[in-house]
Design a protein that fits this description.
With 135 residues, the protein is α/β, with parallel strands linked by helices. It is built from 4 helices and 4 strands; from the N terminus they run E-H-E-H-E-H-E-H. It is globular and about 40 Å long. The chain starts with 6 loop residues before the first strand and ends in a 13-residue tail after the last helix.
Length: 135
């Protein structure tokens, strides 16, 4: 891990109210597979995420009031917010993943750290994970 990085692997995600009930499971799973920290953007449109999970030390909440207006399409808003998050939190992380609050990273043998260590040793600078829909 670089000397400046505080976290080996962090996740950035926008969290919507309909996924509050599953958020604890989502955090627990990703911690289990190797995520050190979570940077969550409160996309609740009025229902405060910090009231739900404000005491969780694994989470840093990111909130910007000047994001694209709600009249714009979600991909534009999401791209803008996640681009700002990348600039803001990248120095604190060796690896940074961007996933949605309804997506789970499921690495082979549940060992994401081993995969990332192999990538680091090979000189790779990124990892693309493909979507697989279940159900």
């Amino acid at each position: 891990m670089s000397q400046d990085a505080k976290f080996k692997l962090a996740v950035v995600a926008m969290v919507r109210p309909q996924f509050f009930e599953e958020l604890g499971e989502w955090l627990d799973w990703h911690e289990f597979v190797g995520v050190d920290h979570f940077f969550l953007y409160d996309d609740t449109d009025g229902r405060a995420l910090t009231e739900w999970a404000g005491g969780d030390s694994r989470v840093t909440f990111i909130n910007w009031l000047d994001h694209a207006p709600r009249g714009e399409t979600l991909p534009i808003i999401q791209t803008e917010i996640l681009s700002r998050a990348l600039v803001a939190v990248r120095p604190a992380c060796e690896w940074l993943a961007f996933i949605d609050d309804d997506e789970f990273i499921i690495p082979g043998e549940n060992n994401l750290r081993q995969i990332l260590d192999g990538l680091t040793n090979s000189g790779a600078v990124g990892l693309e994970i493909f979507l697989r829909t279940f159900g």
